[in-house]
Amino acid sequence: MTFTTPFRHIAVAILLIAACAHSTWAAELKDLRNSAAGSSPTGSAAARSQGPAYATRPEAMQFADDMASRRDLDADWVRAAIGQSRYNATVARLMQPPAKTFQKNWRVYRSRFIDPVRIEAGVRFWRANQATLARAEQEYGVPPDIIVGIIGVETIYGRDTGSFRVMDALTTLAFDFPASHPRAGERSEFFKGEIEQFLTLQSRRGANPFDARGSFAGAMGMPQFMPSSWNKYAVDFDGDGTIDLWNSPADVIGSVASYFKAFGWQPGMPTYYPVRFDQSRLDMDALMAPDILPTFSVTSFTDKGAVLEGQALQHTGPLALVELLNGPDAPQYVAGTENFYVITRYNWSSYYAMAVIELGREVAARVRP
Question: What are the tens digits of pLDDT across the range 112-166?
Fold first, then answer.
C-alpha cells in the first residue's frame, strides 16, 4: 500500500520518551516552524491541495495540549507540530468511499500488482537480501515469499513510499475526516491516536515531524507502517541501534516478519487451498456468513457443500470461504486458512492478501526455480 485499503493496524503501543530527545526546545520549535512553512508535499498539485494551518482550530489545539500532558511531551513542541500542519484536500478526497457503481474485480486488481516490473524488482530485492530473509524466517517463522510479497505490493521495494507530509495527512484525517464516510467518527478517533503515536515516535527519534513523508493515510517507509505499528512491531534487525523503515532493508524485513508473528502467523501452514462445490448440497449463505474469518472445521466446511481434496482434507485448523469477485464474470473461491487471515490483518482485504501471496510466489519461482 500503499495503504491499499485505508485502515491498517489498529494497535496502540505506549512507549517511553527518551529524555534527551529535545535538548533545547526553543531551537527545535524554530526549526519546526521553518520546516512547516517551507516544505510541502512534492509537486505543485500537492501544494495547491493545502489548506489553512490547524493552529486556527481550537479543538486541534486542545487536543495538542491534552496529548502533550498524556505523553509527557513538551506542550509547545506538540502545539507547533499540530498547529503548523495543514489541511490537505487530496488526502480527504482519497478517503472518500468508492462510488456505488464500483465493481470489485480480482483480475483487474491482480494485474495492478502481478506485473513484470514488480516481479523483477522483487527478484533483485530477494537476491540482495537473501541471508536476511532466511534469518527472519528462522526467528519469526514467516517465509521469504510472504515478506517479499508484502514489500512489493506496498511500495515496489521502496520505489514509492509516498510524498504526503505525514503530519498533514494525520491531522487532516483526525479533524476533517470526510463526513460522508459511514464510519467517519470512528476513523477520526483512530487518526487522532495515530497523531499521538507519530509524535511520540518522532520525539523519541529526535526527528522533525515535518520531515517524514508517507501515504495519504500517513503510512510510512517500505512496508508502509502506520505510526502505531512502527511503535509496536518495528525492530532493529540490522543491529545499528536505530529503526529505519525507509532505508534499511534489514529493518523492513525484520519488522514485517515481527508484525506477522504478532498476529499469529503459523509456520508451515498454507495460506489457502483450492475449493469447488457440490451443488446438490451447497449452502452458500452459511459458508459466506463469517466472511473471511476462519470458522469452519474441514468437516463442517464440506458438510455445507464445499469440496476439498488432498492436503486440504488433513488440515486441522479452521477455514473460511474466500470469494474473489470478477466484475460481471463468475467469481473465484479459495478455502482460506488462519495464515490467509493473518495477511488481511496487514490490510483488511482478501484481494490484497491474494496479491501478496501470488506476487511472492512469482518472485520465488524465479529466485529458486
Answer: 999 999 999 999 999 999 999 999 999 999 999 999 999 999 999 999 999 999 9
pLDDT in tens, 241-284: 999 999 999 999 999 999 999 999 999 999 999 999 999 999 99
The answer to whether 246 and 215 are in contact (CB under 8 A) is no
**What stretches of the chain show up as alpha helix (H) in DSSP?**
25-38, 44-48, 58-71, 75-83, 89-94, 106-113, 116-128, 130-140, 144-155, 166-175, 184-205, 227-233, 249-262, 284-288, 298-303, 338-346, 350-367
Q: Are 342 and 263 in contact (CB under 8 A)?
A: yes
Instruction: List, in order, residues 6 or more apart from 292 with CB less than 8 Å away.
Output: 320, 322, 336, 340, 341, 344, 350
DSSP-derived 3-state class of residue 117 = helix
Give phi and psi for 170, each to the nearest 5. Answer: -65, -45
Indicate the Cα dihedral angle 108, 112, 118, 122, nearest 10°: -70
Does the active-site annotation cover 154? yes
Q: Which pTM was predicted?
A: 0.87
φ, ψ for residue 290 (rounded to 5)? -80, 0
Q: Is the model more confident about 80 or about 96? A: 80
Gap between the Cα atoms of 183 and 189, Å rounded: 10
Q: What is the pLDDT of residue 321?
A: 98
Residue found under cell 508535499: 41
State the pLDDT at residue 51. 86
Kindly report the average pLDDT of the chain as a whole number.
89
DSSP characters for 218-237? --BTTTTB-HHHHHHH---T
- Give the separation between CA 302 and CA 279, rounded to whole angstroms: 12
Catalytic residue among 59, 137, 139, 154: 154
What one-letter code names the amino acid at 269?
Answer: M
What is the pLDDT at residue 368? 87
Q: Contact at 8 Å (CB) between 74 and 22? A: yes
- Between CA 277 and CA 228 the distance in angstroms is 41
- Per the DSSP assignment, residues forming a β-bridge with 86 are 53
